[in-house]
From TrEMBL:
Residues 9-142 form the Saccharopine dehydrogenase NADP binding domain. The lineage of its organism: Eukaryota, Viridiplantae, Streptophyta, Embryophyta, Tracheophyta. Signal peptide: none annotated. Gene3D superfamilies: NAD(P)-binding Rossmann-like Domain. It comes from the Eukaryota. Belongs to the saccharopine dehydrogenase family. GO terms for biological process: glycolipid biosynthetic process. PANTHER family: SACCHAROPINE DEHYDROGENASE-LIKE OXIDOREDUCTASE. This is Probable mitochondrial saccharopine dehydrogenase-like oxidoreductase At5g39410. One of its GO terms (cellular component) is plasma membrane. InterPro entries: NAD(P)-bd_dom_sf, Saccharopine_DH-like_oxidrdct, Sacchrp_dh_NADP-bd.
Amino acid sequence: MESSLYDFIILGASGFTGKHVVRQALQFLNPSPSSPLKSFALAGRNPTKLSETLKWAANLHSPPPIPLLIADITDPQSIHRLCTQTKLILNCVGPFRRYGEPVVAACVETGCDYLDICGEPEFMEKMEANYHERSVENGSLVISACGFDSVPAEFGFMFNSKQWVGESAPNRIEAYLSLESKNKIVGNFGTFESAVLGVANADQLVQLRRSRARRPRPKIPGPCPPKGQFVEHNEETGLWAVRLPSADSPVVRRTLSSLAETPHGLPGVNERVEEIEQRTTFWSSVKPARFGVKIGSKSLIDILQIIAVGMIMGKLAKSSFGRWLLLTFPSVFSLGYFEKKGPSKDEVDSASFKMWFVGYGYRNKNGEGSREVDMKIVTRVMGPEVGYVATPIILVQCALIVLSKREVLPKGGVLTPGIVFGPTDLQKRLEENEIYFDVISKNVKL
């Protein structure tokens, strides 16, 4: 792909999230030889909307001469043509179960690299099942979940895991997500649509997993913990919480399975000795653990409302008429959490997230002498609003690493962000862009 016209192309640039990705990318556009991002283009169906997006992203100043390319997911030739013009596609067109596969197929066929902001487990695992071997052969990296789903969860998990030094080891790490705002913020309709379709097709995901050979699982000290209460009040965070059926846990499990298969991580295309040492040192410090995610709030009423939305969605999403109701009147059936118009600028600016990771484990890695955990470590990841700020930051930083460090990344494959970017400087890059990692309490003996 050295002769490509563009370093990357943002597909779906005029969408709700896509236009924020454009704004973020413009901050790193630099024609100097030392810059990894010298050129990029925008792609979508409507040239007028692409032009308006570029003006908006440039903050009403004279926009730079960014090429605007016409492409339609329903036209495979137009997507194939995009892939032949660039090193990397940043796909912002969702729901991915509906629109994602043609883009992945074109990237794999042409050897183009691919990143997206998908949070849909069925799509990601289906792409892995259908395209992994071919993508390795053609040298195409296909990496989904390069946004808020699921980089904070993966890197937060690994950050907590690395705190268990010496003979200590985690048995489980539980994440608690808190979405905070001075003003009530409404969610992206695309996220709601993906969730509705995910519930509607839950059986297909089960069938897909049953049809595939079971991958190796990492060895984790100690027994499986009990399920615990349906609604929990967590002392470390002060949050009421309930399990969140997001993509985060499946993505982390896929990373840990990859690590079980290759304990020192996946070799890069052309690593130097020091880069091999960096990769092996990084992965030797990451200890596997069971992982789960819960959504939390200081208010029990908020959690009860979230449970109510989940019950409504679970009931209605199973029928075509129920899905029509959900997607036609999202504000009504989500109790105001999602709207088609999305949040205002003030709502986005006032919003943030905190994600606590509470690790329970053993001072001795084998848990010898006791089947009860006797150690706890609490860490946290925090940053700006998740959909329109954090996700573009994460996606663009992942893209810059692909552009600047392609030789130290795997040749190809349908992979998770964690297994690809773990040994790189992605965490440092995120901390330089308002997504922070810190240790709350360490080596607490129970």
